[in-house]
Amino acid sequence: MAYVVAFDLETIPDLEAVSRIHGIDPHEDEAAQEIVGTKFPKLPLHRIACIGALIAESSDNGWAVRSLGAPHIGDRTEADLIGSFVDRLEDLRPVLISFNGSGFDLPVLRYRAMVNRLSAAGLYARGYFKRYSEDAVDLCDVLASFTTQGKCKLDELSRILGLPGKPDGVDGSKVAEYVATGRLQEVADYCETDVVNTYRVWLRYELMRGALTAKSFEQSEQSLTDFINVRSVEKPHLAPFAGVSAVLDVAAGEP
Length: 255
Fold this sequence. Notes:
alpha/beta, 5 strands, globular
């Protein structure tokens, strides 16, 4: 595999679609929101607010980070977000890395492409929807051996592994509130931290299963650190991810 893409979605309820289902005025957002309440909406009702993605390229020294971003609906339409992402998949044909991607992110992308009447052939560039395929590695599923009892949250696993985890005080339940109050850049920053956590958990997984040597693992981590350090001014929310000492100690077998 020449490229991997670690990705994550942030979503909000599609209140217009809720209104269509229940036959209420599509301009009555409060009524639609009352119907949604605090329940987790069905997957087609998740309007994509942000798509975060980290692209890494295979090299002789492990993996080199090439790009990281999280465009959002403050700058683009949902259709543009989806279209740009799936076009990139079609170009690169990468292995996809996610955390709960098979249960949430991938089916949401497919549903929302249909809602927006998009051609999304990039979603089928490889066997991304085949649950046991290595074309799309859902770490939540894979690390739990596809069992419910073995699953844990990304934040929990990241912290167990000595990684920063999610920023304090922020989680997916606050995304709708942040979007409604115009705090879209904070949503994008949060999404990027999830993507970096996912990528670093994947690197640890690759080390564990022998796909990376200790040296190539260290160099892959260093590539990420270098990438973040160069962009420290524009992406200060990623500063906690620039240090790799805890991970390198594990790789070296130090206590």
